[in-house]
Specification:
With 563 residues, the protein is of the alpha+beta class. Helices cover 62% and strands 14% of the residues. The protein contains 16 helices and six strands. Strands 1-2-3-4-5-6 form a six-stranded antiparallel beta sheet. Strand 2 and strand 3 form a beta hairpin. The chain is elongated. The N terminus and C terminus are likely disordered.
Length: 563
């Protein structure tokens, strides 16, 4: 209560202060007409001096943007140039080839591996420890060679085929073979039964690499469609800015014609000097629109050049777009738009592959959450002789042999890290599924918005065309009435302003309808055929590594998504 009372008291005090300030303002003596005229004259002189100074210092270092001239750049040519030269697309097109190499690297885990080893040893004992040593200071030397060929199977098992050879020599008088050659030849097989075992688990890295490859393909296609849509929007934006400047030039011509007419009317006494000044001010305002329109043309041209990959400091030649289309693009059936959009939603397909990768990671994590239980077996032939080749032949003929079987068990106590990995992989899979639903929901929102934009744009075009017709008729009538002395100049200028606004609104409505149609065609994938391309043409245009695609044996078409 005390706080509220204090606030109310403060509010009353502020109100009294404001009332006092207003009363003080009213109590001041207003300026005389002569003082106001002097102030206005001073402001006019200041503006005139600033304008003259600007005209002296401002110079155009290059030729201003002119109307489209020469050989025009057609939309198909612009899109074709963007597909070849756009830097962002040039970077993205490398990704599928990189992902294809990653698939090959994952598959290389099952290739044969060759290893070889050699060692040489020498030893001298201080003294003999047995009469069997055959020497007072036993010494010896030896060489050993080994070659092993191993391979990992998709089941997780490994096989090793190897051969070893050794040569030993000593100074013992008791040695029967000196030098002595020994050799071994055989194989060993190891197979995990729990952790690390199973076809699905061992092929998971390959499956993840393949999903990444398919993701890159879908992302590249998405980038191509986005670039096409952005290029077309920028192209028509440049065309619209040229047409807007043309409208402003028409307004300038009308304003100049009106100024000359009023000057002539003032000379013969039918118009006042004030009306001439008002016509000059109106013309200056229209000339300002020309300057702004020229700047918009240059900005729109730079935006298009950036998409075409031709923007540089030396860019001086202007781009000449085709005129802005005025035809009705039509409104497709909404259900058909939804069907086509679902079949061309590459963001959805990318997320499907992300789900597949998370599923594979969960599979690997669950497999690791169990003991490592491996079985192994091996058999080797042994050979010994005083000659090297005889020793090798004896090992192949298995004059002597060595075989073994065994099992090995290892496991972490508690499996804390492994269980945490399983939980994390499961949560990542849940998040990926939720993101898939979010992507599909966003697609539906985009489709609805784009379809409504086309529907509203078509109705808006009808309205703006009707308004343009009415304003043209109204301006003609107002011009005739002004020349007859029925209405004032201000009424005529207002009619011309309304006509200018109607023209601009009609141009804006035409451009907005084109943009809405482009965005809708982008969602349905029709932007491709709209510009005369097919996926075969486009992917060869961006130099996609088709050879890598063929050798990977991956699905080329995305799975159909359901609403």
């Amino acid at each position: 209560m005390i706080v509220a009372l204090a606030a109310l008291t403060g509010s009353c005090a502020r109100a009294q202060h404001q009332q006092g300030a207003v009363a003080a303002e009213l109590a001041q003596t207003p300026p005389t007409a002569e003082e106001m005229a002097a102030a206005l004259e001073q402001e006019k002189q200041t503006a005139q001096q600033a304008r003259l100074q600007m005209e002296k210092t401002v110079s155009f270092s290059r030729k201003p943007a002119s109307a489209p001239s020469g050989q025009p750049l057609y939309l198909r040519e612009a899109v074709d140039l963007a597909l070849r030269e756009n830097f962002g697309l040039q970077i993205t097109r490398y990704t599928p080839s990189i992902r294809a190499d990653e698939v090959e690297a994952a598959r290389a885990d099952f290739d044969w591996n060759l290893s070889a080893a050699f060692s040489h040893t020498e030893s001298v004992s201080p003294q003999a420890t047995s009469i069997l040593d055959g020497s007072r200071r036993p010494s010896g030397q030896g060489d050993s060679y080994g070659v092993t060929l191993s391979q990992k199977f998709i089941t997780g098992g490994t096989v090793q085929v190897g051969s070893g050879f050794g040569r030993s020599e000593n100074n013992s008088t008791n040695s029967i073979l000196n030098p002595n050659y020994s050799s071994t030849t055989g194989l060993r097989v190891t197979q995990p039964l729990l952790a690390g075992g199973g076809v699905d688990v061992n092929l998971a890295p390959v499956a993840i690499a393949l999903s990444s490859y398919r993701q890159s393909k879908y992302e590249l296609r998405k980038s191509i469609l986005d670039l096409m849509a952005d290029t077309e929007v920028s192209y028509w934006n440049l065309a619209a800015t040229y047409q807007l400047r043309k409208l402003h030039e028409t307004s300038v011509q009308l304003a100049r014609s009106m100024l000359e007419e009023n000057r002539e009317r003032a000379r013969i006494g039918l118009a006042t000097h004030a009306e001439v000044l008002e016509s000059e001010a109106y013309l200056a305002a229209r000339l300002e629109n020309i300057i702004i329109a020229q700047q918009n043309i240059e900005n729109a041209e730079d935006t298009l050049r950036a998409l075409l990959g031709t923007l540089s400091f030396e860019s001086d030649r202007s781009i000449s777009p085709a005129p802005l289309p005025q035809d009705d693009p039509g409104l497709p059936v909404f259900q058909e738009v939804v069907r086509r959009s679902l079949s061309q939603d590459y963001a959805y397909f990318v997320q499907q592959e992300e789900i597949e990768k998370q599923r594979q990671r969960l599979l690997v994590a669950r497999n690791a959450n169990q003991p490592a239980f491996n079985v192994s077996a091996g058999m080797y032939g042994l050979g010994t002789d005083g000659a090297p080749w005889t020793s090798y032949r004896n090992s192949y003929e298995a004059d002597g042999n060595n075989w073994n079987v065994g099992v090995a068990l290892s496991m972490p106590v508690g499996f804390r890290a492994e269980r945490a990995d399983v939980r994390r992989a499961g949560k990542n899979l849940d998040v990926a599924n939720l993101r898939l639903a979010e992507i599909q929901q966003q697609l539906m929102a985009d489709v609805r918005k784009a379809w409504r934009s086309v529907a509203a744009g078509r109705q808006r075009r009808i309205t703006t065309l009707t308004s343009l017709e009415l304003n043209l008729e109204s301006y003609q009538r107002q011009q005739a009435q002004y020349r007859a002395g029925i209405i004032s100049l201000r009424d005529l200028l207002q009619a011309q302003t309304d006509l200018d606004n109607a023209r601009i609104n009609n141009l804006q409505a035409a451009y907005d309808l084109i943009v809405a149609d482009v965005r809708l065609k982008r969602l349905t994938g029709e932007i491709l055929g709209r510009n005369g391309f097919s996926w075969v043409d486009v992917e060869s245009q961006v130099n996609l590594d088709n050879a890598s695609v063929e050798k990977l044996s991956v699905k080329s078409e995305p799975k159909s998504s359901q609403p």
